[in-house]
Amino acid sequence: MKKANKNEVVPQAGDTAASLSSLIPIEMAEPGDKFMACPKTVEWIRATFLDPNSPLYNVEHDHLSSAEIGVLWTNVPNNRHMRSIVATAELCMPPGSLNKWGKARWWSQIEQWFGTTALDFVVTFFAPYFAGATEIEHFAVSDHELYHCGQKRDGFGLPMFKKKTGKPVFGLRGHDVEEFVGIYRRYGYQAGAGDSIALINAARKSPEIGAAQIARICGTCQ
Ligand SMILES: [Zn+2]
User: Between the CA of residue 189 and those of 149, 179, 193, 205, 214, what are the distances in Å?
Assistant: First the structure.
């Protein structure tokens, strides 16, 4: 962790921890299927994981400092294979199967939610789960979704950047063993899936942040 100088206030885990529950829109508790954009949750994600001064800062998400992320809260249950999905991370891109109107409608919906279509990723959180989850689970699930928000690599394994803008070329990262070692290290072995020596070594150590059980509740993994 970065050492604080005299005038600098270093946020403690508790400062940002409580705020995710408080960010769930109250409309989520009302009847009817809802999806609501929440810029404040994006701010929470940035302050918690992308700010080098945060105790939960994760260097592995550094490429996301220039990413445009949209967060949606929903109260719509999403069950697959007898499991409840509580979060997903997606590229902000309509499915290729849509025709012209389908794509235009898709973008129009994005515009209505976020006020822009210039987004790289859309992360969706299932409000009823987060309303009852522990703080550590909030961290583990959102950190896990950020791991899905990857940067493409070239044939030499080097991160790719757009020639014109210099921005990273973003891509969705699957549940790759190497890339999810961080979740094991930070939240414990029950927070992930897969096996490799690195994973096992990370799992043997005490989690850096706290133990969380989030396996198989991410829609992007399934
Ligand atoms: Zn996942």
Answer: 21, 14, 8, 9, 10
Q: Which residue type is seen at 218?
A: C
Residue type (1 letter), 57? Y
Would you give the DSSP letter of residue 216? T
Q: Which residue has the tokens 């891509």?
A: 171
Please report, for the chain, the start and end positions of each structural domain, with discontinuous segments joined by +. Answer: 13-204
Contacts of 151 by beta carbon, 8 Å cutoff, 6+ apart: 63, 159, 160, 168, 169, 170, 171
Distance 101 CA to ligand 1 centre (A): 30
H-helix segments, 115-210: 127-132, 135-148, 181-187, 197-204
- Residue 95 C-alpha to ligand 1 middle, in angstroms? 19
Identify the pLDDT of residue 220. 80
Distance 143 CA to ligand 1 centre (A): 10
Q: Mean pLDDT in runs of 10 for the chain (222 residues)?
A: 40 51 93 96 95 94 96 94 87 96 98 98 96 89 92 92 93 71 76 54 73 71 70
| CA 4 – ligand 1 centroid, Å | 34
Is the pTM above the cut of 0.85? no
